[in-house]
Design goal:
six-stranded antiparallel beta barrel; alpha+beta; 11 helices; ten-stranded antiparallel beta sheet; 21 strands
């Protein structure tokens, strides 16, 4: 049994400090519920990494001029966890990162991505920052750059990684000290026009387009003097702008979502079953990530359109379906294989996800239901 399965089974069996909490809904009309995942860790256990969104100095993210890649240069002194689905924004076209991986200190790498703001132009060398986390509809399309049914072309890290030198300019294939940098191979991410068009379509999908109607119900049931929440200043094609407006409009509602003691993750359930699951090995990582996750799924979390109580939410089934997911028989593909870090993609007929490892220990798992 591999370590990816070990982690998932630990959570399912509530071992190694993990526990699955009770589901919570906004009210009886809500079409979604959140189930916290927690873990008790030793007081002296420290993370060996920081999330990309946590690092304020020493990491540069800049536009390469190509629609399908951003460059990340890490001088922070920390291993930095870059998460698939995070989108970066600034004075250039907004992109969603497509591959989760660890970027070690003094490593520079071009990260695969896709555009999530179709009408905004590219400005090469423009620096950007992490601005949020894409909803499941968008992340589903990003994952299609990996096909389990096809053989993949791999690249050698020593031949294709770029490492900055004293003048700050990258040099391909030249290394001052080969032992300093990660060894291994990475599967190429298969960006193409079909994937890009699917990502653009997901940004403007029905679930996103229904935001105004969901907002109106949320306002009626949870907010007073809320104004016309379905009016937007940003177009539907602008993922970052729309997500930021959702966060602002629903701040009072989203603040009601409880935070469990030692929480490390969350499962989001809808009337269709598990929508998504995110979990880290340490509460500090969840605390750093939680805001962007809540923002990404805001409209699902506040969806209260079941005013006739058509759907029955069975509390006792929540844990069962989460455990069934974690115990499923997954197809696996390792897409990043560095000397001290790996990313493994997992897939079933209904779900896709990943597990990320650092120094041979799993630090994160993520799952989402496949788009229909």
């Amino acid at each position: 049994m591999n370590k990816a399965s070990d982690l998932l089974l630990d959570i399912a069996a509530e071992k190694n400090g993990y526990s699955i909490g009770d589901p919570w809904r906004m009210n009886e009309f809500s079409l979604a519920a959140v189930v916290p995942i927690s873990r008790i860790v030793p007081s002296d256990y420290k993370r060996g990494y920081l999330l990309l969104s946590e690092v304020t100095k020493g990491v540069t993210i800049k536009d390469t001029g190509n629609i399908n890649e951003m460059e990340i240069i890490n001088h922070s002194g920390y291993a930095v966890f870059v998460k698939a689905g995070e989108y970066v924004a600034g004075g250039t076209q907004t992109r969603a990162l497509a591959v989760s991986q660890i970027i070690f200190s003094e490593e520079s790498i071009k990260v695969p991505c896709a555009c999530v703001h179709a009408s905004k132009g590219i400005r090469a060398n423009q620096q950007v920052k992490v601005d949020g986390y894409a909803p499941t509809e968008v992340r589903n399309e990003l994952y299609k750059g990996y096909n389990f049914d096809e053989d993949d072309e791999t690249i050698d890290l020593f031949r294709h990684h770029e490492f900055p030198f004293g003048n700050g300019r990258p040099n391909v294939g030249i290394y001052r000290n080969r032992d300093t940098y990660p060894r291994g191979r990475v599967i190429r991410y298969s960006y193409n026009h079909n994937i890009q068009n699917s990502v653009w379509g997901s940004v403007k999908s029905r679930s996103m387009a229904d935001t105004g109607r969901v907002m109106s119900f949320a306002a009626h049931n949870d907010l007073s003097n809320s104004g016309r929440l379905n009016n937007y200043f940003t177009p539907l094609e602008d993922l970052a702008g729309r997500m930021n407006e959702n966060e602002g409009k629903l701040k009072e509602v989203l603040e009601k979502i409880p935070i469990a003691t030692n929480q490390t993750g969350l499962a989001l359930l809808t009337f269709e079953g598990i929508n998504s699951l995110e979990n880290f090995e340490h509460p500090d990582s969840w605390n750093a990530f939680r805001k962007n996750l809540v923002k990404s799924e805001a409209t699902k979390l506040v969806d209260q359109r079941d005013q006739n109580s058509l759907f029955e939410f069975k509390v006792e089934k929540a844990k069962e379906i989460i455990k069934n997911l974690l115990k499923a028989d997954f197809k696996e593909k390792t897409v990043v294989d560095k000397e001290n870090s790996q990313t493994t993609i997992l897939e079933t007929d209904k779900f896709q996800g990943e597990v990320v490892f650092l120094y041979n220990n799993p630090i994160h798992c993520s799952f989402m239901s496949k788009s229909k």
